[in-house]
């Protein structure tokens, strides 16, 4: 344990993030540092009490109005991106990449080679999500939902249609369509790998702006298409979907749209569910995701896409479906709905793994080891 003092950015983030997840991350991280016996305070407390800190950490844009001051006072400022750095947060990384004391954590290692190519000065490393066992606690309640998906959905069809109908975009539309098909068929390959396969064939040499645009466009559409295909492949079962209203356009059969759910409602829903669904999004390939960490922490069984990084962490304590075809997902779901004892035992095993390796306390310890070197 080091003598490093950590400041956790907070401030306006309390009002932001989908379902206010980012605020829960910040609170969880601060608590994790304290549980690890490390010196950590909220950034606001450091300012009010004039506490000198060495490292300031925040998720996404948390505390961004203070970053320049922190970097100019020779403290380290850590930007922890919960999205790909070639997606929503690319503008932030590009602005600060030249600072020696600016460090980027990302929840997926899949961006590493692309970052090394396009932003060689960026100090970048993989640091996955974690969860809060006191927030995502296991409750004794009736499992009233068979299968649940908690996820937003965006209008990918409209996005594609606008590109298709744009003037002088025939070539771009063709490229995007081809990449969407390849990424969908090879869901465990990174976009960078696929781009480098297509690059010589299509004579591509994209600058950073164009790579970001293509990456974000293609991977976000594949993500939405995968979620829709997953849910439609389970139309014969009793599936409840919580998220944006657009889901009503795509649900079929026995699937029921349940409306939106905030953070605390989600915790209650997860506890009342027999199975939580997760399809790993292409933006975060080779990494983890808070959805199944939270669900496992609460003791609920996860049916997830067959993704090597997830299998490595949870082995056979999850059930896995093929997220290129989704041809086996219904059969697997039926099996685990029927075999309750096996499902509950695997869920407990996954909970033990999360409590051992994937709490915010674990991430705080890993971060302190990094900066104490």
Write a concise synopsis of the structure shown:
The chain has 373 residues and is of the alpha/beta class. The chain has helices spanning 21-35, 43-49, 67-72, 90-96, 112-118, 156-165, 170-185, 191-202, 208-232, 263-271, 290-297, 308-314, 329-338, 340-357, 360-372; strands at 5-8, 39-42, 55-59, 76-81, 102-106, 123-126, 145-150, 239-242, 256-257, 273-278, 301-305, 319-321.
Keywords:
single chain, alpha/beta, six-stranded parallel beta sheet, 15 helices, 12 strands
Write up what this structure looks like.
Helix 4 (90-96) links the parallel strand 4 and strand 5 (102-106). Helices cover 46% and strands 14% of the residues. Helix 6 crosses helix 9, helix 7 crosses helix 8 (191-202) and helix 7 (170-185) packs across helix 9. It starts with a strand and ends with a helix. Mean pLDDT is 93; it is low at 12-19. The relative contact order is 0.14. The protein is an alpha/beta fold.
């Amino acid at each position: 344990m080091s003598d490093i003092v950590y400041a956790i950015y907070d401030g306006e983030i309390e009002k932001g993030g989908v379902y206010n997840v980012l605020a829960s991350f910040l609170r969880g991280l601060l608590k994790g540092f304290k549980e690890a016996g490390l010196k950590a305070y909220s950034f606001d407390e450091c300012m009010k009490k004039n506490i000198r800190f060495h490292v300031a950490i925040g998720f996404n844009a948390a505390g961004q109005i203070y970053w320049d001051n922190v970097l100019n006072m020779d403290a380290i400022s850590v930007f922890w991106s919960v999205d790909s750095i070639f997606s929503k947060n690319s503008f932030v990384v590009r602005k600060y990449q030249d600072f020696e004391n600016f460090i980027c954590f990302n929840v997926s290692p899949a961006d590493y080679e692309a970052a090394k190519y396009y932003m060689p000065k960026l100090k970048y490393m993989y640091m996955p999500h974690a969860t809060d066992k006191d927030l995502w606690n296991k409750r004794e309640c009736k499992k009233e939902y068979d299968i649940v998906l908690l996820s937003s959905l965006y209008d990918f069809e409209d996005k594609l249609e606008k590109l298709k109908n744009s003037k002088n975009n025939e070539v771009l539309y063709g490229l995007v369509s081809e990449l969407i098909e390849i990424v969908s068929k090879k869901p465990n390959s990174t976009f960078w790998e696929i781009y480098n396969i297509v690059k010589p064939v299509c004579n591509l040499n994209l600058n950073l702006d164009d790579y970001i645009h293509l990456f974000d466009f293609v991977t976000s559409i594949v993500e939405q298409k995968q979620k829709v295909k997953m849910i439609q492949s389970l139309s014969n079962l009793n599936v409840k979907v919580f998220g944006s209203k657009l889901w009503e356009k795509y649900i079929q059969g026995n699937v029921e749209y349940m409306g939106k759910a905030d953070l605390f409602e989600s915790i209650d829903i997860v506890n009342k569910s027999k199975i939580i669904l997760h399809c790993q999004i292409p933006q975060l390939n080779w990494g983890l995701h808070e959805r199944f960490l939270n669900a496992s922490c609460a003791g609920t069984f996860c049916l997830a896409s067959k993704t090597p990084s997830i299998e490595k962490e949870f082995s056979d304590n999850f059930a896995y479906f093929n997220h290129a075809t989704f041809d086996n997902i219904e059969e697997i779901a039926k099996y685990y709905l029927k075999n309750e004892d096996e499902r509950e035992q695997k869920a407990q095993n996954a909970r033990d793994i999360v409590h051992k390796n994937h709490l915010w306390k674990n991430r705080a310890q890993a971060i302190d080891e990094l900066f104490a070197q």
